[in-house]
Amino acid sequence: MIHRDNKYTNGVSKLMKIEEEQNYQCTVEATITVAGGKWKPLIIYYLLSGTKRFGELRKLIGSVTQRSLTLQLRELEAHGIISRKIFAEVPPRVEYSLTELGFTLAPVLETMKAWGDAYVSRQRKKDH
């Protein structure tokens, strides 16, 4: 059985309302708003391999705080990038997965990873 946390749902509704009022100067700004920041790209990257629970994401990312991860997940859900499924169990179980829209970011993340691989390799060569 799935239930919704009203406090959580209200927070997502507020984010969606703010988003509807956003006027982007450039479509790159829209991309950065939706998928940019310190944690969102990592969340999306790790969800590309499949559904994850909150604790799994937190372990994979490492240095993210519980609050920051929660806020980033809420924003991604509000933008339609991820879906959140709550199971009425004890203890409660929540799973996150990419939506169809979320999977359209795969080429962006793959390009970022390739750039990061080249950058790190270059930095390592520079240090030696």
TrEMBL record:
Keyword Transcription regulation: yes
Annotated Pfam families: HxlR
SUPFAM superfamilies: Winged helix' DNA-binding domain
UniProt keyword annotation of Amino-acid biosynthesis present: no
Domain HTH hxlR-type: 26-124
Any one GO MF annotation of this record: DNA binding
Taxonomy, superkingdom: Bacteria
Alphabetical keyword list: DNA-binding, Transcription, Transcription regulation
Protein's name in the database: Transcriptional regulator, HxlR family
